[in-house]
């Protein structure tokens, strides 16, 4: 069975409370339920994780090789700063979709640069919580087109 990993980065555990005017009121638990339902509709497995630690995120990405067929990564602020995450994504040789709730290109200048995008098959941003469902569908379609 095809398996996906959704990995969420720093501060995403505070969704629903943190800056609702930017990130909405949907919680990470709500997003996990939505993502699980979307994955089930395609008959694929889904593991959902969150970490505030860059090193732990690197370890989770490394562990995905051989366990999952693709990764959906909302690296949060690490998107704009972490060469380590970029290198981890490159090293596991799995397709990755970069995901953001907000449109990072309509925000502060420093958010316009992404290290993750350089090694991702695509980027989804600006659609709020529904972006996770879009990312699941996009990854499934990408994997099936590659078969």
Distance between the termini: 13 Å
Question: What's the SSE pattern?
Answer: EHHEHEHEEH
Q: Could you say what the CATH architecture is?
A: 3-Layer(aba) Sandwich
Q: Report the major sheet.
A: 5 strands, parallel
Specify the helix fraction band. 25-40%
Q: Judging from the principal axes of the Cα atoms, what is the shape?
A: globular
Number of extended strands: 5
Percent strand equals: 15-25%
What integer is the average pLDDT?
93
Number of helices: 5
What count of domains describes the coordinates? 1
CATH class value: Alpha Beta
Biggest sheet: strands side by side, in what order?
2-1-3-4-5
CATH superfamily: Dehydroquinase, class II
Radius of gyration, CA atoms, in whole angstroms: 14 Å
Q: Provide the structure class.
A: alpha/beta
Low-confidence stretches: none
In the CATH hierarchy, the third-tier topology is known as Rossmann fold
Commentary on this structure:
The protein has helices spanning 20-23, 28-41, 54-64, 83-92, 130-145, and strands at residues 3-8, 45-50, 70-74, 96-100, 122-125. The radius of gyration is 14 Å and the shape is globular. It is built from 5 helices and 5 strands. The two termini are 13 Å apart. It has a 5-stranded parallel beta sheet with strand order 2-1-3-4-5, with helices on both faces. It has one domain (3-145): 3-Layer(aba) Sandwich (Rossmann fold), CATH 3.40.50.9100. α4 links the parallel β3 (70-74) and β4 (96-100). The protein has 147 residues and is α/β, with parallel strands linked by helices. α2 (28-41) packs parallel to α5 and α3 (54-64) runs parallel beside α4.
């Amino acid at each position: 069975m095809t398996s996906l990993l959704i990995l969420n980065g720093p501060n995403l555990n505070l969704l629903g409370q943190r800056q609702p005017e930017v990130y909405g009121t949907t919680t990470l638990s709500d997003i996990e339920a939505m993502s699980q339902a979307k994955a089930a509709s395609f008959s694929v497995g889904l593991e959902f994780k969150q970490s505030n630690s860059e090193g732990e995120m690197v370890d989770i990405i490394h562990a995905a090789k051989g366990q999952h067929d693709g990764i959906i990564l909302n690296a949060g602020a690490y998107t704009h700063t972490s060469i380590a995450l970029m290198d981890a994504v490159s090293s596991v040789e799995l397709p990755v979709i970069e995901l953001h709730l907000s449109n990072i290109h309509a925000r502060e200048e420093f958010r316009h640069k992404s290290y993750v995008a350089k090694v991702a098959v695509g980027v989804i941003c600006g659609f709020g919580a529904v972006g996770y469902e879009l990312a699941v569908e996009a990854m499934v379609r990408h994997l099936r087109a590659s078969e």
